[in-house]
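TA notes, week 10

Several of you asked for a full example with nothing omitted. So below is the full record: structure tokens for the whole chain, then the designed sequence directly under it. When grading your own attempts, check the secondary structure regions first.
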């Protein structure tokens, strides 16, 4: 498998598709001066490595790289050296689908971490499932990815090869609504979304719960995520009498939107999901961002005892970018793949079987370990069993956790 891996990596480099190979330099004869054996297993990574969302995507890539290096250093899987192949999806579903095809073509890829965006995840699922290649997303929160398009009434798992370590918007949206209505005491909301899978889905689950609690939706609007001029929407928010804005989308649009709403005279908080929980949001929103809120999956990594080694190792690794919102989940996603590979190797007399991809996908269902973000395991839909969420508020130019818990429906 080493020779095939070297050929695939060389081809990817020539095509400009391979952005990072982890785990040390390789000798001219195909050997490696790091790692743990003669069998190379590649963990694919798909994320936005350039563009507006690269702050999150690079944190994903680096965290997977750290997991691979740690597995090699600790000889986690006897006889196996892990490498990564990281591809840039630019946050675009069509590019993600192309990347999925490239990763499937590399026979040494036995698992993929990513993507960031739920819409990109939708475009990749069938490609991976047809190839029996396991995919573990650290960030996708759209419920339909694991529970089908009719998940509100009938949950049906579409693809057995798809898993995630992040919880879903079926939980995140209502969790935010409960905080906004019960804790922040906001009763009139203006709901905005970017029309994409993640944003529209999140806005819908927030709205349903907010109305159930007794809140009033005083206006709704869809924005074009390719623009940064939201002045007309901001005016509508001002004239609506809303005391809070909920935005389903990501920080490149949420930041300017928050700023322009305040400039229009509506001095009210903007609330969003994990897609806006990045320091770039605060930079884009400016001084008026104080008081804005974001929910994000899990508990703050910096406050978890289980994450202390990850945080220290990441810093020691010399990565130029922050691990950002999904670093811990990305490490855990990669480690889940490593654990599944370990199980398959151990069950096959210390070597990979010919149908390794199918076996790794099968093993993933029963993976269970104590990870960076807490207990990592999956339910019958491939969803994370860890359902914890946290509300963050912008204070003194940074996101500060204000409440952690789980949604009680």
């Amino acid at each position: 498998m080493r020779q095939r891996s070297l050929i695939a990596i060389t081809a990817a480099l020539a095509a400009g598709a391979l952005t990072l190979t982890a785990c040390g330099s390789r000798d001219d004869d195909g050997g490696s001066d790091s790692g743990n054996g003669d069998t190379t297993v590649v963990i694919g990574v798909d994320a936005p490595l350039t563009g507006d969302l690269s702050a999150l995507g690079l944190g994903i890539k680096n965290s997977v790289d750290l997991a691979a290096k740690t597995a090699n250093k600790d000889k986690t899987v006897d006889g196996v050296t892990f490498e990564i192949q990281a591809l840039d999806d630019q946050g675009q579903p069509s590019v993600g689908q192309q990347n999925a095809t490239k990763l499937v073509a590399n026979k040494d890829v036995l698992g993929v971490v990513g993507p960031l965006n739920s819409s990109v995840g939708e475009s990749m699922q069938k490609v991976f499932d047809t190839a029996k290649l396991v995919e573990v997303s650290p960030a996708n929160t759209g419920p339909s990815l694991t529970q089908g398009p009719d998940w509100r009434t009938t949950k049906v798992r579409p693809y057995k090869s798809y898993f995630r370590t992040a919880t879903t918007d079926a939980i995140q949206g209502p969790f935010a609504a409960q905080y906004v209505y019960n804790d922040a005491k906001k009763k009139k909301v203006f709901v905005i979304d970017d029309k994409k899978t993640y944003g529209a889905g999140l806005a819908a689950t927030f709205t349903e719960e907010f109305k159930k609690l007794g809140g009033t939706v005083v206006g709704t609007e869809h924005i074009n995520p390719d623009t940064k001029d939201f002045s007309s929407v901001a005016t509508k928010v001002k004239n609506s009498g809303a005391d809070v804005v909920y935005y389903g989308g990501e920080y490149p649009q949420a930041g300017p939107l928050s700023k322009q709403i305040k400039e229009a005279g509506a001095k009210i908080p903007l609330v969003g999901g994990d897609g806006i929980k990045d320091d770039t949001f605060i930079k884009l929103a400016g001084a008026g961002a104080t008081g804005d809120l974001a929910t994000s999956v899990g508990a703050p990594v910096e406050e978890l005892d289980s994450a202390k080694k990850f945080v220290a190792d990441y810093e020691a690794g010399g990565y130029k970018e922050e691990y950002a919102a999904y670093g811990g989940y990305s490490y855990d996603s990669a480690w889940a793949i490593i654990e599944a590979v370990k199980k398959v190797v151990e069950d096959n007399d210390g070597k990979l079987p010919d149908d390794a991809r199918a076996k790794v996908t099968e093993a993933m269902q029963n993976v269970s370990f104590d990870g960076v973000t807490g207990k990592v395991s999956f339910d019958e839909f491939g969803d994370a069993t860890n359902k914890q969420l946290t509300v963050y508020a912008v204070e003194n130019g940074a996101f500060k956790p204000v409440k952690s818990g789980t949604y009680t429906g």
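Residues 1-33 have pLDDT under 50 and may be disordered. Use that as a sanity check on your answer.
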